[in-house]
Specification:
The chain has 400 residues and is of the alpha/beta class. It has two domains: 195 residues, P-loop containing nucleotide triphosphate hydrolases (Rossmann fold), CATH 3.40.50.300; 170 residues, Nucleotidyltransferase, domain 5 (2-Layer Sandwich), CATH 3.30.420.280. Helix content is 32%, strand content 20%. α12 packs across α13.
């Protein structure tokens, strides 16, 4: 099958390495290349080739339009959309799979497999499941994706950087791909935190240890504000231990300053709302979205209790992911251009403690195992993610 492509991608497809790893920035054309490589060469009778995405839904979204195009242009191919399999007259099959149910991947031999965004799969999907399926056929694999810290995808990348043996690795920025205007990349740089920009657009393996707020620096972010803006709002997290609210103001340049906090042990939403009203009444609240469905200690929802105290509730209808909240928080602390967009009063000791001590779990989310931590971080990040999201959403609710 012939593909119209460029010398860069032809060089990757034609390279003799059995195992290939392509690390590239967003919108580089990774999925297109992965499918081109997967279908390259003579497809022999009865052989199987797979495109494996982190989830089946992602694979369907990414690859199904391409498979439909192939069916229209290849007379010997028939697409079964119910199981995302392109079947050829000689019995060969090209299938799209999801890695979220890894045990369902086990089976007979593969000739070729493209593994898309391996950084977001469980490590053993390759080592224990897919690799053994290549051994009896002498099959080949291509890993392709964007970095997510120094995880198992980085380990795969290292195997091919010495240009020897069965492995070969490549690394390209978004601009290298030729699909995105460099001016768009510069605009993205201004709206992202520095570490995330390098990872997502420059395909750089980045680390910040395991700190949730990796951009937080006491020497930069702790400030006594000369003036407190009148544009104020609460971020709220509901728990019996601990009920937490953090109070912020916003300035004309969109910088925010956290200048007060409330933390109540063995308490309830009524008591928290009373304290919030005493400190700063009648301002918008950005609470835990789960508070719309239940109360921590009452028959009313947590959101309704706040409304009863005349607070306006602004909330997602569904929980933003931990990753989305942390990305928004770190970008607000310092974006890729080095601009600081958030400061904290030194008296906000619980928020400062969370920013310094809260860790990420193995999935990149917020580690909740230390019960005394994360409440102020949650309250802060609900507010930040809603007002300054990295990814724009529309599903929100506002109510009094």
């Amino acid at each position: 099958m012939e593909w119209r492509t460029d010398n860069l991608r032809n060089g990757i497809i034609d390279h003799p390495a059995r195992f290939k790893c392509v690390v590239a920035g967003r919108r580089w054309g990774k999925t297109h290349l992965a499918l081109m490589w997967l279908l390259d060469g003579l497809i022999q009778s009865e052989e199987r080739r797979w495109f494996v995405a982190p989830t089946y839904r992602q694979g369907k979204t990414l690859v199904l339009p391409m498979l439909r195009n192939l069916e229209r242009n290849v007379p010997s191919a028939t697409l079964n959309e119910s199981d995302l399999t392109l079947k050829f007259d000689n019995g060969a099959e090209v299938s799209v799979k999801g890695a979220e149910n890894e045990d369902a991947l086990r089976g007979s031999g593969l000739v070729k497999v493209s593994i898309d965004e391996y950084a977001y799969m469980k490590p053993h999907v390759w080592e224990e499941i897919i690799f053994p399926m290549l051994t009896d056929t002498g099959g080949k694999a291509m890993f392709i994706g964007t970095p997510d810290g120094f995880n198992h995808f980085y380990d795969i990348y290292l195997k091919g950087i010495d240009d020897s043996g069965d492995w070969q690795s490549w690394q390209y920025t978004t601009v290298d791909g030729g699909f995105v205007d460099p001016e768009e990349v510069l605009r993205a740089r201004a709206t992202m935190d520095e570490r995330l920009f390098r990872q997502e657009f420059e395909a750089s393996f980045e680390t910040a240890g395991k700190r949730c707020a990796y951009n937080f620096d006491r020497s930069i972010h702790l400030k006594k504000a000369k003036d407190i803006s009148t544009k104020r709002f609460w971020g709220v997290d509901f728990n019996v231990d601990y009920m937490t609210a953090v109070l912020a103001c916003e300035y004309s340049d969109s910088t925010i300053h956290y200048f007060n906090e409330i933390r109540l042990a063995n308490s309830n939403t009524d008591e928290l709302a009373q304290e919030m009203r005493n400190v700063c009444p009648d301002v918008p609240c950005y609470p835990d979205p789960a508070g719309s469905a239940r109360s921590t200690t009452s028959s009313k929802s947590d959101h309704q209790i706040l409304r009863d105290y005349k607070f306006r509730i602004i909330s997602r209808r569904a929980h933003p992911s931990h990753r989305d909240r942390l990305n928004a928080l770190n970008r607000k602390l310092k974006n890729a251009e080095g601009k600081v967009g958030m400061t904290i009063d030194p008296t906000c000791k619980y928020l400062i403690k969370d920013l310094e001590l809260c860790q990420r779990d193995k999935h990149g989310g917020i580690d909740k195992t230390t019960l005394a931590l994360t409440h102020a971080l949650d309250a802060c990040s609900y507010l930040v993610e809603h007002r300054y999201p990295v990814t724009r959403r529309v599903a929100t609710s506002t109510s009094w």
